[in-house]
């Protein structure tokens, strides 16, 4: 609760220097770490807010990525492009995400789950690049709202059956229609193959801060919601989850193939996110302790890695005014220092040691193979394709002959290197402190 009030009291700082705002956001992050890091399992902040290990790591990821968004948006502050509204939007976004991840009540969770869409929509429509950002915003809203009303009906049915909307008071129900009424909103948010088209459109049109929060945190809302509500669907999960896992893994393979013919850097990274999140969804639906742990680790690792890749895509876009892989070539000759960061984040994206992605995928593979040996075939294909499109992204952008249309070029900036370091360092350092992740 103290952290939420601290966020509200940051509103007078919205018109200050970017470094003042950045330090304020990092202060909130470290305040949260110091206050709740000694919590063993559960800690109730109030009657409707509380933390366990899953909530703790999700809130921490949200605070970290939102702080990095401020650093990534220095151009908006420098050009004074509605800076006050942008910073207010950031505070609203961080506040809503903290309430979503710390909510103990399903209705509060649902309300702020929908509220968190509004700042992201403002980011895309207000600070996007192309006129198509309006269509991307509509895709984002309507894909989510289409399944919002069914979830509301499911919440009312849960209230009528369990006489409470507190997560820890739910009991297992065996109603097939309720399974899809409530879970479809999370399948869209993850997103599952077939209902994923909003994600590439939103990423391509969003500014760098919008892409960072979409990849870093917003996709994790779906995984977090499934974790919280799978308790209600344990009986139905024994029957239906095998079909959803099969569909998710087949979709992960198909999306990995789609990555190979993408010509836009952002679009390729967005589709790779769909492939990785299909593993997260499968791990949660396996109803296995290791599946939950692996999904949590992979969500944190993917949030940091894909956010860093979108920062690199923006670094290239600011210099070349294009994200086309047919033009962005041979950059190792021009900015070798940025190419080094591209290599380090690309190999993390393909789950190389010692990144969190590797740890998460190993745990998920143990969980899914124990669920069914046939799944091993899909996991092998997804892992292989993940390595291929990650190296494809790196080699296309950094090797070859650079475009003759480049007349002048500036090297990497200090704030860009700081931003990339703050993505890469926790992504690899947390591997050493991953023991806490097993105590969820």
UniProtKB/TrEMBL annotation:
The keyword NAD is assigned to this record: yes
Subcellular location per the Swiss-Prot or TrEMBL entry: Mitochondrion membrane
Residue ranges of domain NADH:ubiquinone oxidoreductase chain 4 N-terminal in the record: 2-99
Transmembrane segments: 18-34, 54-72, 84-101, 107-129, 136-157, 177-199, 211-230, 242-261, 268-290, 296-317, 324-343, 363-396, 417-439
Ranges of residues in domain NADH:quinone oxidoreductase/Mrp antiporter transmembrane: 103-385
Substrates-to-products reaction catalysed: a ubiquinone + NADH + 5 H(+)(in) = a ubiquinol + NAD(+) + 4 H(+)(out)
GO cellular component terms given for this protein: mitochondrial membrane
Keywords, sorted A to Z: Electron transport, Membrane, Mitochondrion, NAD, Respiratory chain, Translocase, Transmembrane, Transmembrane helix, Transport, Ubiquinone
Pfam families: Oxidored_q5_N, Proton_antipo_M
EC number: 7.1.1.2
GO molecular function per UniProt: NADH dehydrogenase (ubiquinone) activity; NADH dehydrogenase activity; ubiquinone binding
InterPro entries, A to Z: NADH4_N, NADH_UbQ_OxRdtase, ND/Mrp_TM
BP terms from Gene Ontology: ATP synthesis coupled electron transport; electron transport coupled proton transport
Lipid bilayer topology: Multi-pass membrane protein
Function, as annotated: Core subunit of the mitochondrial membrane respiratory chain NADH dehydrogenase (Complex I) which catalyzes electron transfer from NADH through the respiratory chain, using ubiquinone as an electron acceptor. Essential for the catalytic activity and assembly of complex I. Core subunit of the mitochondrial membrane respiratory chain NADH dehydrogenase (Complex I) that is believed to belong to the minimal assembly required for catalysis. Complex I functions in the transfer of electrons from NADH to the respiratory chain. The immediate electron acceptor for the enzyme is believed to be ubiquinone.
Similarity comment: family membership: Belongs to the complex I subunit 4 family.
Protein name: NADH-ubiquinone oxidoreductase chain 4
Source species of the chain: Imatidium capense
């Amino acid at each position: 609760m103290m952290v939420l009030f601290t966020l509200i009291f940051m509103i007078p700082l919205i018109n200050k220097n970017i470094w003042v705002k950045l330090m304020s956001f990092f202060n909130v992050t470290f305040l949260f770490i110091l206050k709740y890091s000694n919590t063993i399992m559960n800690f109730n902040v109030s009657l409707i807010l509380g933390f366990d290990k899953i909530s703790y790591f999700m809130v921490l990821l949200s605070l970290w990525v939102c702080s990095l968004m401020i650093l990534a948006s220095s151009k908006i502050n420098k050009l004074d492009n509605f800076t006050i509204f942008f910073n207010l939007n950031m505070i609203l976004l961080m506040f809503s995400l903290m309430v979503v991840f710390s909510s103990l009540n399903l209705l509060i969770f649902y309300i702020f789950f929908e509220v968190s869409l509004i700042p992201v929509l403002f980011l895309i429509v207000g600070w996007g690049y192309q006129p198509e950002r309006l269509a991307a915003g509509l895709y984002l809203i309507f894909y989510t709202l289409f399944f919002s009303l069914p979830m509301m009906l499911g919440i009312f049915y849960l209230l009528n059956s369990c006489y409470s909307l507190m997560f820890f008071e739910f009991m297992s129900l065996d109603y097939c229609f309720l399974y899809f009424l409530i879970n479809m909103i999370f399948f869209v948010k993850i997103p599952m193959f077939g209902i994923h088209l909003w994600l590439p459109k939103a990423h391509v049109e969003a500014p760098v801060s919008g892409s960072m929060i979409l990849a870093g945190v917003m996709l994790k809302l779906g995984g977090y919601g499934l974790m919280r509500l799978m308790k209600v669907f344990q009986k139905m999960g024994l029957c239906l989850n095998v079909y959803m896992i099969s569909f998710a893994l087949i979709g992960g393979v198909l999306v990995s193939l789609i990555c190979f013919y993408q010509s836009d850097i952002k679009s390729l990274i967005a589709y790779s996110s769909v492939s990785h999140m299909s593993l997260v969804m499968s791990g949660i639906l396996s109803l296995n302790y290791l599946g939950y742990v692996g999904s949590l680790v992979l969500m944190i690792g993917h949030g940091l890695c894909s956010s860093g890749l979108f920062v690199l895509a923006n670094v290239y876009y600011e210099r070349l005014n294009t994200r086309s892989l047919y033009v962005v070539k041979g950059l190792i000759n021009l900015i070798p220092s940025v190419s080094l960061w591209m290599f380090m984040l690309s190999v993390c994206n393909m789950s190389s040691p010692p990144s969190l992605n590797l740890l998460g995928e190993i745990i998920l593979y143990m969980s899914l193979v124990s669920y069914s040996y046939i799944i091993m075939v899909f996991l092998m294909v997804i892992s292989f394709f993940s390595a291929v499109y990650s190296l494809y992204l790196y080699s296309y952008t950094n090797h070859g002959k650079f475009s003759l249309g480049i007349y002048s070029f500036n090297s990497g900036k200090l704030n860009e290197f700081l931003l990339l370091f703050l993505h890469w360092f926790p992504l690899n350092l947390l591997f050493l402190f991953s023991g806490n992740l097993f105590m969820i």
